[in-house]
Amino acid sequence: MVFGADEQLLGDAAGRVETLAELAGLLRALRRRHARRCGERELSYRTLAARTGWSHTAVAEYFTGKTLPPTDRFDVLVDLLGAGPAERGALATARDRVHEQRRGDAGPAAPQPPALVPRQLPPAVQQFSGRCPELAELTDLAARASATGPVTVAITGTAGIGKTALALHWAHRMAGRYPDGQLYLDLRGFDPSGAAMPAGEALSQLIEALGVPPQRIPPDLAARAALLRTALAGRRMLIVLDNARDSAQTRPLLPGTPGCLVVVTSRNQLPGLVAATGAHPVTLDLLRPEEATELLLRRVGPHRGQAGPAAIDAIVARCAGLPLALALVAARAATRPRAALSSLAAELRDARTPLDALDSDEPDGAVRTVFWWSYRALRPAAARLFRLLGLHPGGGVPVSTAASLAGLPVAGTQPLLAELVLANLLTEHTGGRYLLHDLLRAYATERVAAEEPDDQRAAAVRRMIEHYLHTAYHADLLLGAQWEELVFDRREPGVVPEPVADRRAALEWFTSEQPVLLRTVALAVVAGLDAAATRLAWTLTSFLDWHGQWAALVEVQQAGLAAAERAGEPAFQAHARRGLARAYTRTGRYGAAHRHLAAALELSRRCGDPVGQGQVHLSIALVLERQERYAEALDHARRAFEAFGTVDNGRWKGRALNVVGWYHALLGDHAQALTSCRAALELLQDFEALADHVNTWDSIGFAQFHLHQFDEAITSYREALDRCRHLGDRHGEAMILGHLGDAHRAAGAVDEARAAWQRAAGLLDDLHLPDDLEQIHARLAATGPRSPQPA
Questions:
Q1: pLDDT per residue over 332-342, tens digit each?
Q2: What phi and psi, each to the nearest 5 degrees, are found at residue 707?
Q3: What is the average pLDDT value for the chain, to the nearest integer?
Q4: Distance (Å, rounded) from C-alpha 457 to C-alpha 11?
């Protein structure tokens, strides 16, 4: 079908659409009309992806007829391109017609493996009591769920009032009604450091929990919010957003379609959320005396309550109906089972904290009094550990991190952590990590400032930062990407790095600790530890790059560059600029990448660093390759080889020689490419340089393929593929699979070729690399359907 004038195409044309290609042509014509009406160029696929939150690949495939857009995406897309109500109806009918036609042609769909259902709710509070009216209200709200949109509940109240406890207790009761899973996120809205979780980071965590790879998450906040809404569309999920700072932090995190229940907790009233989204407010007040008594009795046991009813009343009165204060008193009672409650009540009555509001009946006064009472009952070593935890930048604290803060061995730290858990001053979370309630973190921060001398606080911060630095350096070496060694000053006494056994453990550690590591770089800068900040930024480069976290890579390398400039370390300034250039190269900002690399090259020359100069030349070659300037890229690869030739390290020369061979191949001189790459492999054979072996075997296979040595090329590509899978470089694996498919097709094995390309397409789609994916799709389309298998 050929569409005529764009102004009339949405009339009869939509009624005549029968195929996916015709529907794609209709979308392209709609895009042209939108550009004419707005007086601007056609919206690019990248712009449409940013505005909708979908992947660049998905949008491109809708407009080129490779994929049929899902119903919810199709409606948003035609709205974005200016279709009116009648036009939308005609287009929707056309889309449904194509869908039915394709479903009939395809036959029964193959069964899909079950998707992983997120179950992120933390454990509910044991021995929960009270809050019966609020629980009934929440259950009633869920029963009256709107058919036109998601239900949002805002549980608000003062600090320590039990918002999280209520939210989790109720969420666990309701979980069965939401079969698609439960999400939980602590937004850190009232963290003592003031570092509430940015909405963009929160969106990324929620989107990844729904199975979207990080590489496909757009950098723009609005696009991320749209992607979250798309991922949640059609699902029945329960989402708990804990400790929200304000309405602005939470609004981008809300779904847009019916089926989901969102529970937000905050100390603030969130009037903007109520006004803008129709959230239902549930405000918690202090516990009534009978509720407070019930809570306390459940925790200390009815037999002790019967023995001291007057003491129970005194404790309840002193705690002012604040659940957190009552929980702390109950924990203290549990640690002294033989003590009469009357004596505990007397101690609490006589407690005098150096903080303000001692005798106030307000909640702050009650909780501070109970904090002091619980804190002073600790053994001195446990009390010191508690206050030192106030120096941590937030998030879960593993045992080794706590040990480094305290300057103690792990074996000596574990009993102290157990004592804090028993006193209810610390919570043991999954994976051997320990969490502080935000009020307790604030109290620990106050205590460490009041009781620890300046030099002791500074030493604890240094130990903690070195703990993360040494662990990150070891984990980065296990990833296998680095090929130079960091130079450390001697390790601070008492630093206990996290044990990281192998490459899988290194990836898991980086993944779980990434938010804390980014905050630790900033903490090192604030503490004046610029050398540590530059080195920690250095260790994060490979992980952030491989996982598509290029916005975070830019952030951390900018901090590392500023710290290296203050510390007067030109080698680390050059490294930070190479890291920035890597992020800019990945995102197509080639001009910025060249500027940073030119500065890095000058820095390496100034400090007489031939290895640094060689690395910069290889980075410049990569940018030039992306720009298809292969002759210039070859020149820089040769300069890198010359620079590395001045030092005695075969690995560096082997890496550069392989790159030289690769650019010879891209320029068509495949015999010379094969010679160079085989020489590179010879240089690398004595080194456990997994990434270099992968790249060199791939280059050899590429040259053999173009010399029509197809069987040899298949063998070389398989060598590269086996090593690449162990390395975990998914983009590299996809590229090698593409080359392997080419070799199979040239050797006449079409089915093997299609299998390799299909695996490559799956990886590239996950990685959100549309240009590479388009090339793989073209190869698949050119080979036709898979050959039938013999019976």
A1: 787 778 778 88
A2: -95, 10
A3: 83
A4: 73
